[in-house]
Amino acid sequence: MTRYLAGARCDGGYLPPLRLGRARDIAHAYQILSGDPSHNPDTEYLRFSDPSSIGELAVIFFEAGRPYRDALQPREDLLRDALKIRNRIAHSSQKCRADFKKVALRHLGRRPGTALPQGYSPGDLLTRRAERHFGKWAKDNGVTVFDAYMDLYNRLALKIVPRAQG
């Protein structure tokens, strides 16, 4: 998003139409996106973890929020689930545990509030076969939840930054 805002194009020449004009350079784009005129990308990260917030931000800067909104909006639930799995790996707070449990139960096809097997971990979930949420191809090909998420991220990336044709 920063590079697009600064006027960068993909290898194939794609640049989403800007609504408010181009940033002067990458540093200016970081300042605009962070809302902080002293933003330092070497020491501070932009917060792009919530897919709906990314889509809303994209609508401000790009015509119809493209390509972000079109790519992310249909998969927001899975992207939020991925963040909850990541957070459970990184943190052991009660909130992270509860969020992970909800995600795991959905992937396992169990009712909310039922118990997970004792010691069930993000690794257990990510290495099991993806039988839900990722479509028939994942189920039919025995793809793991981890590999299904990797495929999802790859497909979304290609929608946001399309490859050169040819």
Concise overview:
The chain has 9 helices and no strands.
What does this structure look like?
With 166 residues, the chain is mostly helical. It has two domains: 72 residues, no CATH class; 85 residues, no CATH class. It is built from nine helices and no strands. The longest helix is centred in the C-terminal third of the chain and has 16 residues. The mean pLDDT is 92.
Descriptive tags:
52% helix; 0% strand; 166 residues; mainly alpha; single chain; 2 domains
Class of secondary structure makeup: mainly alpha
Average pLDDT metric: 92
Determine the number of helices (DSSP H or I, runs of at least 4 residues): 9
Rg measurement, Å: 19 Å
Low-confidence stretches: none
Helix content: 40-55%
Beta-strand content estimate: under 5%
Largest beta-sheet characterization: none
The total number of structural domains is 2
Total strand count, please?
Answer: 0
* Shape label: globular
Order of helices and strands: HHHHHHHHH
Query: N- to C-terminal separation?
Result: 25 Å
